[in-house]
Specification:
mainly alpha, 81% helix, disordered N terminus
């Protein structure tokens, strides 16, 4: 990550897209930290007896630096070990360096009085100490007073502590050679003097020149730039710096930081994003608890109920809205189901009506067919009878005129034979069975076997069957 990177974050999705993958790897980064610590411990355990005390001091300093922003208890333990080794070395440079680290870590844990007492007890011999030791002492002591001022947040005492901190930082400038650190110190002095625009210029220079492998310095510079932009109401720029700082802190397993807390605060008050603010303030509280930072936990503790409380209120509104929507949807669903059932019932009734109508239409069609066939047959027979009667009258008249009485009698006798009852019944039977060929079988199916009719001539009916045949025709005429 370049120190001068300035890609602004505009919305929630962009922030989540950049931070969420890093948060998901949080345990991995912590495990990598533990593996580095174990490697140093293993080296010390294997080679400590053969090492010079200066080298042992250096390795314990490495352990202290690994834990300095990771775990207060472990860092404090190794700071006290550094003091013991420094006393054994009986070197003022090592003693001051070790005590400086002890005072610094006490302040990180929220023990400001103990930190000030420890740092105040150091006797400074400027001519006898290296510049790096002196600059580190003054910067660390100055930061303790600045942190105490931030924690106190009192118009009287905070101003006093900031002034004491700036006096110490001014002293460090004469011992500094690193340009980035010089700009950082000048920027911090300007910021505590409320010269925000000037402080921003110094911090920009410090960021431009900083060593990106120094995760602690990078975290401080990015978080402070975010704070400065927030004070200048450059909220989008502040969010970008907080995002960069948070990513650096998570990847470096830095638990003693302000990046996630600052990001959560600006998201809540500027972006009105309660969800992300609540998530990040919870992460910040978890980090502070893991580290054991009492004053960070107190500060976060004042924000946590506000963010989480509003999130719970929003969730409550969402649940109520969901409940109302569910009830309304359920009512509509019930109405819809009832409507569908009613429609299905009506469709079923309509289908039955159509089926009944079709059956009635079929019966009517069959009745019409029977009627037409029946009437047609007897109309044809009637026409034949009329024609024959016309011929009979004509021939009979001629025979009467010619006085052929015997021949006329014979003709009348033959006409009576041709149209006797038997022929009429036979004609009816044939006509009826042509219309209802299964009438006899269907009628017998209604009777017991011993009562069924047996007809020798399949084309004729007996007297009983003719009666029911007439009833059958009568039903169709209805």
């Amino acid at each position: 990550m370049g120190c001068s990177q300035r890609k602004q974050v505009r919305n929630k999705k962009e922030i989540e897209k950049r931070i969420s993958p890093v948060l998901q790897q949080k345990r991995t980064y912590r495990q990598e930290k533990i593996e580095r610590v174990d490697s140093i411990k293993h080296f010390l355990h294997t080679n400590e007896n053969a090492m010079h005390e200066e080298d042992i001091f250096k390795e314990y300093m490495n352990l202290y630096n690994e834990f300095k922003l990771y775990s207060f208890d472990s860092a404090y333990h190794y700071a006290t070990q550094l003091c013991k080794i420094a006393n054994e070395l009986n070197s003022s440079g090592y003693k001051i360096s070790a005590k400086t680290q002890l005072g610094y870590i006490l302040a990180r844990g929220g023990f400001f009085k103990e930190a000030i007492d420890t740092l105040s007890s150091i006797q400074i011999e400027k001519d006898a100490l290296p510049d790096v030791v002196l600059s580190n002492y003054y910067i660390s002591f100055g930061r303790v007073y600045h942190d105490l001022a931030d924690y106190t947040k009192d118009d009287v005492f905070s101003a006093k502590y900031n002034k004491l901190g700036n006096e110490l930082l001014y002293k460090s400038l004469s011992h500094l050679t690193d340009s980035s650190t010089i700009y950082y110190v000048k920027g911090k002095i300007a910021l505590k003097e409320n010269k925000v625009e000037k402080a921003k210029q110094f911090y920009q220079q410090a960021l431009h020149l900083c060593d990106t492998t120094d995760s602690e310095t990078l975290s401080i510079l990015l978080s402070t730039m975010a704070f400065i932009d927030y004070k200048l109401e450059l909220n989008d720029e502040a969010i970008e710096y907080y995002v960069q700082a948070a990513i650096n802190d998570i990847r470096s397993a830095i638990n003693e930081s302000v990046s996630l807390r600052g990001l959560a605060t600006i998201l809540y008050y500027y972006k009105d994003d309660v969800d992300l603010a609540s998530d990040y303030i919870n992460e910040a509280f978890e980090d502070a608890t893991f580290y054991g930072t009492r004053h960070r936990m107190n500060v976060i503790g004042t924000l946590l109920p506000v963010f989480v409380g509003e999130k719970l209120d929003i969730e409550k509104v969402k649940r109520q809205t969901f409940q109302d929507s569910f009830i309304l949807s359920s009512v509509f669903a019930i109405i819809l189901i009832v409507s569908i059932i009613y429609i299905l019932i009506q469709m079923k009734r309509l289908r039955r009506s159509r089926e009944l109508q079709e059956k009635l239409n079929a019966k009517l069609a069959e009745a019409n067919r029977i009627k037409n066939s029946y009437i047609g047959h007897y109309l044809d027979a009637t026409f034949k009878l009329v024609n024959q009667l016309d011929k009979f009258v004509l021939v009979g008249q001629q025979k009467l005129d010619n006085k052929q009485y015997d021949s006329l009698y014979s003709m009348i006798h033959n006409l009576n034979q041709e149209y006797n009852r038997k022929n009429t019944f036979a004609d009816f039977d044939q006509t009826f069975l042509s219309l209802f060929p299964t009438f006899v079988e269907s009628f017998n199916a209604l009777l017991h076997s011993e009562d069924q009719f047996v007809i020798d001539n399949k084309s004729s009916l007996n007297s009983t069957l003719r009666i029911f045949a007439l009833i059958r025709l009568g039903n169709y005429r209805k």
